[in-house]
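If you are new to this repository, start here. Below is one unmodified record pulled from the training split, so you can see the exact layout before writing a loader.
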Amino acid sequence: MAGRKSGVRILGILGASALAAAMAMALNGSTAEAVEGVTCPTVSASGVVTPAPTPGVDWDHCDLKDANLSGADLSGANLDYAILTGADLSGASLTDATLYAAIFESVNLSSADLTGATMTSVFSGLVTADPAPELPADWQLTDGYLVGPGADLNDAALSGADLSSADLADTYLGGANLTGATLANADLSGANLDETNLADADLNAANFTNAELAGVESGGITGETTLLPTNWQLMSGYLAGPGADFDSDNASGVDLSGTDLEDASFYGTDLEGANLSEANLTGISAPGIDLEDANLTDANLTDASLAFAAFGPGELTLQGADLSGATLTGVITADIAAGPAVLPAHWMFADGYLLGPTANLEYGETLQNIDLEGVDLDFANIASTEFQYDNLTDASFWGSNAVAANFYEDTWSNTICPDATNSNLYVSGCFSARRYDLSAFVTPKSGATLSKSPRSFRAEFRLTDPATGAAVHGATARSLSSGHDVRAILAGPKIRTQTVTCSWVGNKRQYFSCTFKTPPLAKTGKSHDYTITAQVNQGAGFLLALPASGVKNPETIHFS
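And here is the target side for that same chain:
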């Protein structure tokens, strides 16, 4: 059974805000402020009311706390919003009185006559009556509460109460405890049951049409009813619908397949072996949920939060769960103790996270020393995540939010960057400097045949900075040259591979020049290919200068 939540509730019936103000005044011992034109009586310490009550009297909004009105004739009186806390109304006549939003807390109604009275939004509790009072049609006194259509039963303690066939239409039952209550054939149409606890209640044939059930707690419910609000179902003893409260419930093995549980709460809920196939779990909050061996095939977990352990119940686990075909758009995960047996295509489990397209790692801390080869994080939120020493080969971050992400000493190879470029274009991964392009081999041209007669020959080429589109020249070129950060490699059959440093030639031609010794053992003819490769060190070691369109690097030459 879920635990009680704290917090401010929004009253869901007409006049409830005014009632709340009146209650506050009653609790603070202050006097209610009467409406204009109304003269409220005084109540002495002994409860004497001055002037004395008369039929039809207008005591709208008056403070009658602890008043002695025993035997009074208040028939036809206006007691709207009146504070009657602790009043003695034994034997009093309130026939045809208007009691809208009046407070009847700790009131004595023994033998009182309220037939024909208007009691919409009446707030009560701890009412005593022996003998019982006469009440308007469809009203009853149950466990110290005045129960009827439109009553305000906010936080009422009605555990185990017999409310079978009761008329509770349009009542406010927010936060009420109805555990084990009998509500068979009761009319709760239009009622507000936000955060009400209905665990173990008998709801056979109860009418919940158009009722508000957000945050309702259930489990162990008996009876059957189909008279429920849109998108709600009674299944496996639970009222299942948008915003339902399953916190800390032991719901292992329940069948909630196909239910609409959008924005429901599952704090520390045990759903081991449960059937949630095709369920709508959009936006659920589920710290510490136990989904071991649960069936989540084709379930919708859009924007669901499956993150962290719960205090008390323990770790969050998906061990053995089947999520095949599930929708995981924007799912938030962290600290999952054990991963599922089956995930949808393009998803994987690693280090407590579900990783896949649109995954939300807003609680991400550090993913360290993990093989994430091929991981698909397209359009994922990784802004708060650190990737350290991870293998990102063939991974994809296309469209992901990586504004504040941190990457340290990761392995990048053929990784798709957030802007859809390839990590191979960069010095050290997607978030480092772009590698220089080889815009052209000046000499020799690709496919050229060189004579072996000269003792040496030069390879000359130009580089381009892709960040600006301009040729590498001036201070940048001179710095690369003086730092020995541009080199060329000659390789091929039967020769010793030569690696030579290239110098900057700053004349009008603006190129890097590298001198090779002509290899005497080089094979001659077009059937023997030799390669010249241009490389640049931009701070992460020598890497291939990326060839521009139509350019080859390495280029192929021959000897004659």
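Two things worth knowing about this chain: The first strand starts at residue 42 and ends at 43. The longest helix spans residues 16-28.
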